[in-house]
Automatic annotation (TrEMBL):
<feature type="active site" description="Proton donor">
    <location>
        <position position="120"/>
    </location>
</feature>
<feature type="domain" description="Phosphotyrosine protein phosphatase I">
    <location>
        <begin position="1"/>
        <end position="146"/>
    </location>
</feature>
<protein>
    <recommendedName>
        <fullName>protein-tyrosine-phosphatase</fullName>
        <ecNumber>3.1.3.48</ecNumber>
    </recommendedName>
</protein>
<dbReference type="InterPro" id="IPR050438">
    <property type="entry name" value="LMW_PTPase"/>
</dbReference>
<comment type="similarity">
    <text>Belongs to the low molecular weight phosphotyrosine protein phosphatase family.</text>
</comment>
<dbReference type="GO" id="GO:0004725">
    <property type="term" value="F:protein tyrosine phosphatase activity"/>
</dbReference>
<keyword id="KW-0904">Protein phosphatase</keyword>
<dbReference type="Pfam" id="PF01451">
    <property type="entry name" value="LMWPc"/>
</dbReference>
<feature type="active site" description="Nucleophile">
    <location>
        <position position="13"/>
    </location>
</feature>
<feature type="active site" description="Nucleophile">
    <location>
        <position position="7"/>
    </location>
</feature>
<dbReference type="InterPro" id="IPR017867">
    <property type="entry name" value="Tyr_phospatase_low_mol_wt"/>
</dbReference>
<keyword id="KW-0378">Hydrolase</keyword>
<dbReference type="InterPro" id="IPR036196">
    <property type="entry name" value="Ptyr_pPase_sf"/>
</dbReference>
<dbReference type="InterPro" id="IPR023485">
    <property type="entry name" value="Ptyr_pPase"/>
</dbReference>
């Protein structure tokens, strides 16, 4: 199973989602992350994301930002998007129904009528990063339940 987490810059939300998910799935699973923009390409995650993960004993410091690319739509089995605008951007890049089927909103797996967007903590503070971590942790648990039967 190959899972790709996608946000806008690939320096805050999706690196955290990648780091959290890796702690929850078997070692033969591939978990990666990407952004829809290449502004931060090659950069490590935002220091606040690194610190928040470290507070939970997860090391995301060696990850590097990269934009989503065409081959990802073929290589990955599931592509989880952090918010609606990311979802719309990613789905517009899919070239057929098989690829579109792989793409969903990350928080949709939680079900219910809860907000389906992971808020962008980039303009916020450490408290926002911790709240995003908790949301991502719940979402990763829901995804794990859904994909590991
Ligand atoms: P992310 O957060 O999508 O969770 O990585 C952002 C990072 C950078 C920017 C926006 C959001 N930016 O505009 O540079």
């Amino acid at each position: 199973m190959k899972i790709l987490m996608v946000c806008l810059g690939n320096i805050c939300r999706s690196p955290l989602a990648e780091g959290i998910m890796k702690t929850k799935v078997p070692e033969n699973f591939v978990v990666d992350s990407a952004g829809t923009i290449s502004l931060h390409e090659g950069e490590h995650p935002d220091k606040r994301a690194v610190k928040t993960a470290a507070n939970h004993n997860i090391d995301i410091s060696r990850q590097k930002s990269r934009p989503i690319k065409r081959i990802d739509f073929e290589n990955f089995d599931r592509i989880y998007c952090m918010d609606i605008s990311v979802f719309e951007d990613v789905i517009s890049k899919a070239k057929n129904e098989e690829e579109r089927q792989k793409i969903s909103l990350f928080l949709e797996e939680l079900g219910g009528d809860k907000n389906v967007e992971v808020p962008d903590p980039y303009w916020g503070g450490m408290k926002d990063f911790e709240e995003v971590f908790q949301l991502l942790d719940k979402g990763c648990d829901a995804i794990k339940k859904q994909i590991i039967t």
